[in-house]
């Protein structure tokens, strides 16, 4: 893929620039990319399968139930459908994007891309699918729009670190959904440009959502950005303008929220009209936990066979990257990460807890591994409190490596035994990573989907969904409903509290 580098910085009010020099305009141009190559189209299908499996497995969890009931209050003839809900109960696309995004994100079990910042690019898919249903788009148009949205979010994640300034990564999602919708609907570039600026302006939030006692909002955060982006596109389509230039302005995102005056960012985008390929650099999860724990879970499963008695462990030290140490490790300074009463969302951001449980159980399960009874087990708490992390410059360098074959998100583990002996091992990437020991291909995505939906989605319903998903590129406008599996209404829990809607 031919790449164009765009230098982005804040501009003083007196500096004169054309809108064609602005990052929002450059991002809008990605909407006009060439049709996806076969490998990209295949990966879009993989991620659609992946999203649906993790969403269906989360349907009766409290955040998903609440979001679903909010959405059902906004019924609309000819609107979009919700995961698990009858296709006859249609809702406004913005609210479908909201509820379906929460379902996808709740288990922290879908795909990831890590670079200067963090992202879960499959968060783009629910909003694009909802609008495609409501607006009568084809499967081919949806596939292309998904690939384009991935390209934008990954480019921004690669080039602009929001985390360093404690801004949550959903600010990049707002832009990518807006561009993806522009591609889906065939909008003029100026309309997409306005929508990007609106979406970015309103989706900049702080990272307190991922700090300390992590709440249910972690599942809602991408839904918030996606819904705002749908609304931004609608507003731009009606001829309305947005804060400009949103990135470069004297009071814009760079000047006031990121690096400030003098800070420049390099954004790499495909040459205009070229195909997009960045989805191939992203990766899914084999374990339901923060991505930076994936390789370390695999390492714990590998190392446990060398330990006959876990009570004889004196200390466990995980040498890892800056991001892993400070986000999910002891470098975060969050006492909640060591608290047996912590929320599931907090535990899935505690590598100390995750490594201890994987070492004890020899497996990782999206529900059982987080149960309160599991987290409060006395032997687990003892082992958990022996685990700490340290930043290692070598692992930090590999985390930020530009060569995807050198880039790594794992670490080295030292287990100090009470008798003075030491057990050491390291793993650079998760087994499921494209460069890992057991990389995911279509059979693994299908296997993950089936394992997550077994027991409540019939085999025939699984097969119908998989057939439709794998035929995405040829689905007609009336066939997108097949991408949203249904359950009997009696199988869906209700929220036990009333709201406004």
From TrEMBL:
Belongs to the PrpD family. Residues 287-473 form the MmgE/PrpD C-terminal domain. It comes from the Bacteria. This is 2-methylcitrate dehydratase. Residues 22-260 form the MmgE/PrpD N-terminal domain. One of its GO terms (molecular function) is lyase activity. It comes from Kordiimonas lacus. Gene3D superfamilies: 2-methylcitrate dehydratase PrpD.
